Amino acid sequence: MNKEKRIEIFKRLQANNPNPTTELNFNTPFELLIAVLLSAQATDISVNKATKELFAVANTPDTMFALGADKVKEKIKTIGLFNTKAENIIKTCKILVEEYGSQIPENREALESLPGVGRKTANVVLNTAFKWPTIAVDTHIFRVANRTKLAPGKDVVAVEEKLLKVVPKEYMLDCHHWLILHGRYTCVARKPRCMSCIIEDLCEFKEKTSL
Ligand code: SF4
């Protein structure tokens, strides 16, 4: 895909949604970190339901750590992998309290060293809470980048590297949210909705649908 097409894609995505953000509910970097940690293999809607209850009783590293793993499990038991996620949340809170003054570190290495926090979660926190121009490649972005040929790659790291190379600077901060939303609602996994896609004429996918 050439540069002009890429620019036009982002122009349209921006015009369609000038201020995109995550669909996870959060008020602080800590709440965002916990929500993203819970969102692995779970829908944003299910995470929002659980965090509404959880954050009502604990929304800081100190209060969450004091709550303890069993009570966290109770609050998030509707979410997949809740046992492991609750254990990781408590371990992460302990480290935040003991090593980071109960703050979320604005530092990739420090974030990725927290239990349950991988590259994708760190990227989301750096981008959404701290406004770093990072791109967290999830299943939606991976699909959209490959189908459109915007940034093809064999795995999520390759797609992330390619996006960082080719996305114009002025679109980098919001790129992650535009592509996720596009993949979630238009360029969906089974049958992309090509007929109602605002970038259909720019997309280089060979098997566009007539939906
Ligand atoms: S035209 Fe179809 S395949 Fe291409 S981005 Fe749009 S929905 Fe996805």
Automatic annotation (TrEMBL):
Catalysed reaction, written as an equation: 2'-deoxyribonucleotide-(2'-deoxyribose 5'-phosphate)-2'-deoxyribonucleotide-DNA = a 3'-end 2'-deoxyribonucleotide-(2,3-dehydro-2,3-deoxyribose 5'-phosphate)-DNA + a 5'-end 5'-phospho-2'-deoxyribonucleoside-DNA + H(+)
Parts forming coiled coils: none
Entry EC number(s): 4.2.99.18
Entry's cofactor comment: Binds 1 [4Fe-4S] cluster.
Cofactor(s) the protein requires to work: [4Fe-4S] cluster
Enzyme class label: lyase
Molecular function terms from GO: class I DNA-(apurinic or apyrimidinic site) endonuclease activity
Cited InterPro entries: DNA_glycosylase (IPR011257), Endonuclease-III-like_CS2 (IPR004036), Endonuclease3_FeS-loop_motif (IPR003651), Endouclease-III_FeS-bd_BS (IPR004035), HhH-GPD_domain (IPR003265), HhH_base_excis_C (IPR023170), HhH_motif (IPR000445), Nth (IPR005759)
Keyword annotations from UniProtKB, A to Z: 4Fe-4S, DNA damage, DNA repair, DNA-binding, Endonuclease, Glycosidase, Hydrolase, Iron, Iron-sulfur, Lyase, Metal-binding, Nuclease
Annotated residues for binding of [4Fe-4S] cluster: C187, C194, C197, C203
Keyword Lyase: yes
Residues in HhH-GPD domain copies: 38-185
PROSITE patterns attached to this UniProt entry: ENDONUCLEASE_III_1, ENDONUCLEASE_III_2
NCBIfam families: nth
Record family assignment: Belongs to the Nth/MutY family.
Function recorded in the entry: DNA repair enzyme that has both DNA N-glycosylase activity and AP-lyase activity. The DNA N-glycosylase activity releases various damaged pyrimidines from DNA by cleaving the N-glycosidic bond, leaving an AP (apurinic/apyrimidinic) site. The AP-lyase activity cleaves the phosphodiester bond 3' to the AP site by a beta-elimination, leaving a 3'-terminal unsaturated sugar and a product with a terminal 5'-phosphate.
Protein name: Endonuclease III
